[in-house]
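Troubleshooting log. The previous structure file for this entry was overwritten by mistake, so regenerating from the original sequence record. Sequence copied from the archived sheet and checked twice against the printout by T.R.
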Amino acid sequence: MDAQFVNGLQTLLQEISGASSTEAIQKATTTLNQQFYSSALCVPGLFSIAKDNGNAAVRQLAAVELRKRIPKFWGELDDSVQQQMREAVLKVIIDETNDPVRHSMARVISSIAKVDIPNQKWNNLVQFLYECCQSPTASHREIGIYVLDSLFETIADTMEAHMEHLFVLFKTLISDPESLVVQVTTLEALGKVAEFVDPENRDEVSSYQALVPSMVQVLQKCLATDNETYASRCFDVFSTLLILEAPLLNRHLGELIEFSTSVGGNEDLDEKLRIMALNFLTWTATYKRGRLQKLKIVKPLIEKMMPITAQEDPEDIDEESPSRVSLRVLNILSTSFPPQQVFPTVISHVLRYMQSPDPMFRKGAMLSLAIIIEGCVDYTRSQAGDIVTLVCAGLSDGDERVRRASCMALGCIADELDDEIASYHEKLLPLIFNLTNESNVVIVKYAVNALDCILESIGDPIVNYLPQLMEHLVVLLDTGAMEIKPIALSAIGSAAHSSGEAFAPYFDAVITRIKQAMALTGDDDVMALRGVATDMASTLAEAAGKDAFLPHLGETVQLALQGMESDSPLMRESGYCYFGVISRVFKDDFSKYIPFIAPLLLKTLRMDETVEFGFGLDSVNEGDLTGSGENDNEDDDDVPVNVNTAVADEKEVAADAAGELFANATSGFLPYVEDVAKELVKLLEHYSDTARKSAIVALFTFIRTFSKLASPEPWKPGVPLRVPIDENTASMIKIVIPALLSIWDDEDDKLVVIQICIELRSIMRDVGPAATIDYAEDISKHLLEIFEKKALCQTADLEDEDDRTGEEDEDELAEHDSLLIGAAADCVAEFAEVFADAFEPIMDTFLPHIAGYAKPTFATSERAMSVGCLAEISKNMGPAITKYAETLFQIFMTGLGDQDLEVRSNSAYGVGALIESATIDVSPYFGDVLKAVYPLIKIADNTNNARDNAAGCVARLILENADAVPLADVIPVWISALPISKDHLEDIPVYDAVCHLLETRRKDIEAFIPALRPVLEQALADPASLISSESRQYLATL
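Regenerated output below.
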């Protein structure tokens, strides 16, 4: 070996090890790369330094650098040199006393093995490691298991062949009597072994499961000794095991959950350890949903989490705490499990906690209520009044922590139950106004945010509050704390949105302030205000209208563009929001600005989201003294990267803007459509679920816009196509639908799949059968998987078969699951609309699945969905529905006896639509139908359109066979339900039936004309009425 070469190499490594500046490190590293790391001699040279240098830091640095050079240069070394190094490195690692150096040398062994083992070399390595693991010396056992662990990262396939022997070895090591290091490293090795356990191999699964209790004991020992680092590594392994396909934890999951809840709730333990335990529960609730249901552990888990929510939180909202993680567990439970399994347990604690003299329990009650509402929206709609009463109590509480939590809760609840909460404005707004006058800035901030949420949905009643509201919000905008100003401005925007023309007196003062804020520069808080101002400019434009805003258009566009030129992703997001909304106001008149906007949009969509780690002193550590950001788990050619989520958010908003801009400023955006569409198709595979959703919506908007641009004649149902579509629309369909189908198989997010179903339904409604005619089979396959609960997004929690079958709760669905199936059902109903009688083969497939959700064991929302979908299909298929008439008639009649009003309402519509469409004579059953719909006609408030649907059902019976209807008894009751007040699609059969009776059965209806006349006058005068043109013309002559 060249002594001069080694000395030069050693000198540079010593310089780096002792360097105090980035410049010195960079200079030495450049020399290393140019003069030493370009030659295979660096491998034995680095090994010599790692073996013999007296400075442990230099030895470790040499070992780290050696590991990185092995893949490139090992094959260039003479066999004799390789063999000498193999023998020497095993001796070195045994003799080395410094742990970091030993670990780095273990990585060297792993790196050499990655090259050698596949080439049938170094065959004695594994046997050597076995001997180390069985040595009476603890340090030898530590090295043996550590190297074995690292080999699973480099030669996993080879190690997999030793699985049977490894289980025997690990069974001993996991209970090592002396060394916690051996135990923890064994546990980590077991985490890697788990990835190779075949779920179908019962022996392997059973062998692994037998080790789990010992693994838990290792974790318990780490916690007992307050060893946070080791405990964290153990929890990481257990969390990884949760997401594997093999059910390795299932046998002991109940005990693990009990252990984690005990740790999470133990206030005597270090907070970081408690947070780890609670985070394990979040992963469990996410990935082991079926197992939790089988264990019937959801309620006990909620009961254990609730007291933790009452504990103190740090002031920094981004800092983790046991309380915040326990709330996250509750949130995941609410979105993953049926609401009837979550909400009753939580609300019982909330009611009890609100009576507690301890304000922290009242705080916990409010935050718990806020956090679960996302998964219980439909379930809680009918309880909005009770929820408001609870929140009002919290808003009036004497403790500011409770008031702050109540403001947060109100914001969350109003965001989900917007219309319901806004209807209680008289109770809520005075309390919120009072809170916005408090001295505590945090309370004011959350109070204004809650106010913003309510104002967005309040509607006409806002005019009663506008003077007081605007006076107060403008003061907060002008003189409030900087963190309050953006929220105050957002609330002003919501007020403008809800009040419309009534906002005119405040327009000038607000637009002046908005333009001033759009020009601000400064720190993050200032830029947050500028971003909100940019967004609110378009909201104000939408409220004021095109003419009022036109004098300010050019200036605000310029200010928005200037903001987008900054380095701030927030300003670019705000700019895209502004352009998307403002284009809705000015339509094609906005086209002249598109050449300035579209290039920015494309730049964002093409932006790289990976950021290489920086090079500097901060990245220099014991494991990588060159500052190269080495990750020992990465191959040498890999570049360690971070994902820039700010860019992901920016792409999401840019995709939203792209759809809006093409839909509204169509002519100006046309030159950019092709390039933007290509980028949106790429975005369909983005890691961010919200970015994927935005791309889906934008691409379907492109199809819709091309179709409108072609001004086609209305599409006609049926296959083959009776109305052709234009070339541009057809081309965009060929780009979008295949791309969508290609990613659907791998889509694991329910909300994204829901969006796909929504967009497919919408595009079929707008474009007709041409949108899906070539893809019906593939789309149907995906929809069927949803009904069968086999779609990836429904099985992403990786339950084993034992957890997915035989459960008495299998008909209870989480609300997101319910929304997914409802969206799929709507899509199927639209297929029936566009394909008409050609839908029959699809109907044969879907009928039993959709009808299955009408069973009484399913929740109200699923029963209503099932009956509603079948009702729409009955209408849409026309005479082809006759084949299924008997089955559907029974479903609808059963539904008319359901305890839930929405199910009865949908059933009334369904039975009428079936009788209208089917070609068989159902008149013998008219008496049963009339008897069943009579209670709906007598409903006073028309909830769920029940009265309208009942009136429409009676009308269809009359049109089908008036002779089978006892008109003298039916007509007065029927007239009492008129005019149609909400569901104006029922105007068509109702007034067609009136005309039919007047024309053919005048004598039977003559006595009721005085009662009928005011109904007809009101209906004819109502601009919302959808009376057919023939009936309107006839009735107008009476």
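The chain has 54 helices and two strands. Archived copy saved in two places this time.
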